[in-house]
What does this fold into?
Amino acid sequence: MSQPIVVTHPLAQVHLTRLRRDDTPADKFRWHLQRLAEILFTVASRALETSVISIRTPLAETEGHELARPLVLVPILRAGLGLSDAIHPLVPEATVAHIGIRRDEETALPHPYYAKLPPVLGRADVFVLDPMLATGGSACTAISQLKAAGAERITFLCVVSSPQGLEALDAAHPEVPIITAAIDEGLNDHAYIVPGLGDAGDRCFGTT
It folds into this structure.
């Protein structure tokens, strides 16, 4: 199995700890999730290619850089919105696509219910965003949808992952890099990550 990139930066781990705590309220949860998303994306985007351009400063002509390809952020609804809301200001020119996948609570199987994808996928760098990589079902399904729509350069970014989810995603899409802040012990009987941080969507948006 290819190895995920685990971001162990001290600030990332401090934000992750606040996300894990069960007494962190929704507003603070969102804030720490967004700060952690910024750190994770900085790591995930470090291999992006740039083109050299000529610019003029107030003093002289010089060379600068711009991204060589379009960027597409793909939050998996709804928890992925907590990541894209933080990342989009870092790359305001990026397109934001959306994929909705509901998990069956009895079988833990993914059920896609929505997709709005841009036509630039085939020539873009695509970042799939979901706080949790549990069974891997949602991530694998989303990436399959993106590939079917023409995406070729895909990176998956999550906050917490499980060994089972990493194995499933590697088996289905071995060429997709995985960026995460932690690899946890595993899944419980309900296919939730342990120790995890609970339901990221509910905790981010204050729902149950």
